[in-house]
Amino acid sequence: MSVSRIAIVAPDGTWTYGDLEEASRRVAGALRGETDDLNQARVAFLVPPGCRYAAVQRGIWRAGGVAVPLGLSHPPAELEYVVRDSAAAWVVGEAASRDVLAPIATAAGARFVTTDDLLRADLTVGPYTRERDLPHIGPTRRAMIVYTSGTTARPKGVVTTHANLGAQIAALVEAWGWTPTDRLLLVLPLHHVHGIVNGLGSALAVSATCEILPAFDAERVWERLASGEITVFTAVPTIYRRLIASWDAASPALRAARSAGARRARLMMSGSAALPVQTLERWREITGHTLLERYGMTEIGMALSNPLHGERRPGFVGTPLPGVDVRLVDESGAPAADGVPGELEVRGPGVFLEYWQRAEETRAALHDGWFRTGDVAVIERGAYRLLGRTSVDIIKSGGFKVSALEIEEALRQHPAIAECAVVGVGDPEWGERVSAAVELRPRATLTLDELRRWAQARLAPYKVPGALQVVPALPRNAMGKVVKPEVAALFDRSGSRRSIAGAEAPALQGDS
Ligand code: MCA
Ligand code: AMP
After folding, report:
1. Which domain covers residue 409, as residue numbers?
2. Is 296 within the bounds of a domain?
């Protein structure tokens, strides 16, 4: 790798690979301090996507620590949960977030340090950290904890080792043909795997250039695609929908320039949620690209992908990536018969190590090396098609996974709410919209605006309900259990089920 190659172009600067190497070495030296090795101590960090994010992430790794990325949009309550749950030793943040992060760090028994302090540490206090002073990092060590919502009330920390991350990235480099001449346009948040592994991690692994926007902005993305300089783009369906709307609203001359520039990219991908066939088709009309849809999960990285070369089938997520074993099993855990839907299980070197300090959940999710994804799929003419999930309590909104149980637990704290049920309701913009049905306490009232304002202080923005129904009584079965499909029907008067990739989803196990 040439140290003079451009690694990152971002709002906080343009750095070469040499710059990144030096900055991450300084971060490592400062975090390590007097100790030889952080020995897998957790370092939580809240740094906007950019050069400094990459320096902190890599600096944590080089010092022997475990990187715990925090969500930029998260309110203090969510940040504190992650800092506490991961038992972080350090919290790293920009000086501007000191007022939020320093008290959280103190309350959790961690030390707060600014990115500025880490980056200038060697320059001002020395001694200069040399490569040979840094610890050797073996592949089986823990590297990262990404928090993911699931079927437990609070998010779980997904622990991946250096070997896991290496395997996840190697599979993508091989399957998607990453090369040093690539230039990725990255617009995704960097507290989730899509941005961290498929985006930044893959680009840096091959010494390509990663161009980072501060946040998703349709006009700005089109400007960069129109330049014809971008070779790889990856996003969630909601983003493609917004880009299509922006293209439709542009003048004929601008449309032509945008389409011509985008055609020069070599690869455009979609994932994290089902890509509606109409979105795929419209994007093809506009840019000439048939989006490469793939399937993955925080616990495994990517598992299935449509081909780089060859037919990309709309509504399908393709075949297993290199080194990844995938199978479908029935409710008893036995392999499903040919052509019969089953739960997807995934095995391979990219599969995570454990849920952080949750031995029971880890045992329940992993058996004989196979990870139970909770997603239901079928194989048709040699490719996988996703049908839905085994749990109604997992919702995907704009590519973010959210747990109905977590939101219900938070909403039950609201003084006006006696009982509630949260469901995902099919939505053209978000894929699914977080929707809450509530029974109120006597004489209480509640509007959606009031509920959103209240919830915004407690939950990440994508977990805040976007729809509210106040009901005298939630629909329950004879056992008194809330019947979630009936709750969903309160929002979707047609009563139709959530659809995946434009098709009606069949009934799923546990869907009541
Ligand atoms: C923002 N809002 C949302 C969401 N995002 N509400 C529901 N769902 C969301 N996903 C809220 C905002 O807080 C705001 O609320 C209102 O919606 C409109 O905000 P806007 O500015 O228009 O949205 P945005 O900030 O531009 O965000 C839209 C987005 C974003 C760019 C699509 O949601 C996003 O970056 N999604 C990508 C998520 C992702 O990377 N997932 C990968 C997970 P208010 O109006 O009240 O202020 S990893 C994964 O899934 C696996 C491994 C995989 O397979 O990839
Ligand atoms: P997360 O837990 O945030 O990593 O999200 C992983 C989940 O996103 C998977 O379990 C799937 O339910 C969903 N997902 C990822 N890619 C796709 C896709 N291409 N189509 C449908 N769902 C997807």
Report:
1. 394-494
2. no
